[in-house]
Write a structure and sequence with these properties.
Blueprint (H helix, E strand, L loop, with lengths): L3 H6 L1 H11 L8 H17 L1 H10 L19 H7 L1
Length: about 80
């Protein structure tokens, strides 16, 4: 399993933690937000089921080009008939 520091250094994981804290963060001091981030990362690092879910949700690669991938489309029956 990853260490909490490794998890916090990962932009995807940090964004998930920030999303989880979004409702309470405005009411907390910076010190409290840092502490809560560290606690959440520690739980993520120690919980095997949570680590598995996080690994499944984590993007496999990050596109830096700004291009959007298009979903794969299967050929329609009309297209196949026209080709054959």
């Amino acid at each position: 399993m990853a260490e909490p520091e490794q998890l916090l250094a990962d932009p995807f994981v940090a964004a998930q933690i920030d999303d989880a804290m979004a409702l309470v963060a405005p009411a907390l001091s910076e010190e409290q937000r840092t502490w809560l981030r560290e606690q959440l990362a520690e739980v993520m690092a120690e919980d095997a089921q949570l680590a598995e879910a996080l690994a499944g949700a984590h993007p496999r690669s990050v596109v830096h080009s700004g291009m959007q991938a298009k979903p794969f489309e299967t050929p329609r029956e009309e297209d196949e008939a026209a080709e054959g």
